[in-house]
Amino acid sequence: MKFMTMVSSAESDGPPPPALIAAIMQLGADAAKSGVLVEQGGLHRTSLGARLSIAGGKLTVTDGPFSEAKEVVGGYAIYSVKSKAEVLEWTKRFMGLHLEHWPGWQGTAEVRQIYEPGDFPQ
Asked: Tell me, what CATH number does 34's domain have?
């Protein structure tokens, strides 16, 4: 089973402390060594991105920043695990690093299962 985790917070929180980045990199190395980490990464500020939307049959491209967003996705990880419980344990460890290395930070981590070919009816 594959899962994607996405961490979100207010973009105004600024960049994460170097100690947090180092701890996240170590957690990623541990997960890779365990054979469960597929990929992880952090995302640049929304001012460097764009949003594409369709409404009323029309495609619109809007350059960032997205000031109307209260929280934005700041990073992600993809895990290949045996159960939802296993990915939740890795995600709890990740969020615990935020508690330890970034006092006062507030955010969420969303865990979503990724569709795989066998999940679709034939």
From this structure: 3.30.70.1060
For 77-115, write each residue's pLDDT tens digit. 999 999 999 999 999 999 999 999 999 999 999 999 999
pTM assigned to the model: 0.90
Are 7 and 90 within 8 A, CB to CB?
A: no
Domain count, the chain: 1
Q: How many Cβ atoms are within 10 Å of 86's Cβ, its own excluded?
A: 16
Write out the residue range of the structural domain in which residue 13 sits: 2-116
User: Is the bond into 121 cis (omega within 30 degrees of 0)?
Assistant: no
Tokens matching residue 15? 């960049």
> Is 121 inside any structural domain?
no
Q: In DSSP terms, which residues pair with 63 in a beta bridge?
A: 50
